[in-house]
């Protein structure tokens, strides 16, 4: 067993280390975090995934990651909560790719960046400080304002 920055890696005691092979298992450390919904894939009335962000110290909404696919009841529960963006969205003109290292561009709808959600994330971050893996939606946070979400990188 080896402890790494992102969790615990493990293998059978009788199994030798094989360089370049994905023979070890990994238990990822997870935490819950708050983020702001800035865009969705699919229609805002029944989104497939949520694109999330956090403000940085300069007040720019920075992209932090995307949720896994939402279950249909969860997606439907967001109807009326997500509002299409009215001019001047911080992500206007930006494109998003389907995944890490992918060139496939997502078809997204920008939404008013006011809804705060709590998500389950693993602690892995990419070089830009974004969540490296898709996150799981835990719940909406109507009790929190977008300005109260921790800053990007915090």
Task: Describe the structure in your own words.
- With 154 residues, the protein is mainly beta.
- It has one helix and nine strands.
- It has one helix at 72-77; strands spanning 2-4, 7-10, 25-28, 30-41, 49-55, 61-66, 108-110, 116-122, 136-140.
- Strands 4, 5, 6, 7, 8 and 9 form a six-stranded antiparallel β-sheet that branches. Strands 1-2-3 form a three-stranded antiparallel β-sheet, with no helix packed on it.
- It is elongated, with a radius of gyration of 17 Å.
Write the layout of secondary structure elements.
Elements: E1 2-4, E2 7-10, E3 25-28, E4 30-41, E5 49-55, E6 61-66, H1 72-77, E7 108-110, E8 116-122, E9 136-140
Antiparallel strand pairs: 1-2, 2-3, 4-5, 4-7, 4-8, 5-6, 8-9
Q: What are the salient characteristics of this protein?
A:
single chain, 154 residues, mainly beta, six-stranded antiparallel sheet, three-stranded antiparallel sheet
Query: Which series of helices and strands comes N to C?
Result: EEEEEEHEEE
Global outline: elongated
Number of helices: 1
The mean pLDDT is 86
Give the radius of gyration: 17 Å
Largest sheet: 6 strands, antiparallel
Low-pLDDT runs: none
Distance, first to last CA? 29 Å
Q: Determine the structural class based on helices, strands and strand pairing.
A: mainly beta
Helix content: under 10%
Strand segment count:
9
Care to give the gist of this entry?
The chain has 1 helix and 9 strands, in the order ββββββαβββ. The protein is mainly β and 154 residues long. A hairpin with a 5-residue loop joins strand 5 (49-55) and strand 6.
